[in-house]
């Protein structure tokens, strides 16, 4: 589990483009995104559960949605989906 969190964090840092308007207006905050890695390993159902600002929320959803396909989790030898919550502190 920790390995996937590290991977997601690194992906987020590498791919997050702070929106220009948010920079100009000095918009910062904490965004929490919920998503599912389904039984095929595909990221689905990306939603914001805690909003900082619409501009930051949209970019956070875009980056999480761009995660590559994963090897799915297994339970009792069968592939299963897993729900994740990913918090982000966004600051300039």
Quickly list its features.
single chain; 92 residues; alpha+beta; three-stranded antiparallel β-sheet; 3 helices; elongated
Offer a concise description of the structure.
This protein is of the alpha+beta class. The chain has helices at residues 2-15, 20-24, 54-65; strands spanning 29-37, 43-50, 73-75, 78-80, 82-90. It has a 3-stranded antiparallel beta sheet, with helices on one face. A two-stranded antiparallel ribbon has the order 3-4.
Task: Describe the protein in words.
It is a single chain. The chain is α+β, with helices and mostly antiparallel strands and 92 residues long. It has one domain: 2-Layer Sandwich (TolA/TonB C-terminal domain), CATH 3.30.2420. The protein is 34% helix and 35% strand. The protein is built from three helices and five strands, in the order ααββαβββ. It has helices at 2-15, 20-24, 54-65; strands spanning 29-37, 43-50, 73-75, 78-80, 82-90. The strands form two sheets. A three-stranded antiparallel β-sheet has the order 2-1-5, covered by helices on one side. Strands 3-4 form a two-stranded antiparallel sheet. The protein is elongated, with a radius of gyration of 14 Å. The mean pLDDT is 95.
């Amino acid at each position: 589990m920790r390995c996937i969190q590290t991977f997601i964090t690194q992906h987020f840092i590498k791919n997050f483009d702070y929106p220009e308007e948010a920079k100009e207006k000095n918009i910062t905050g904490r965004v929490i995104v919920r998503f599912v890695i389904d039984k095929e390993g595909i990221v689905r159902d990306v939603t914001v559960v805690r909003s900082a600002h619409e501009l930051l929320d949209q970019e956070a959803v875009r980056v999480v949605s761009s995660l590559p396909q994963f090897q799915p989790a297994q339970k009792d030898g069968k592939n299963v989906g897993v729900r994740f919550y990913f918090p982000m502190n966004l600051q300039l």
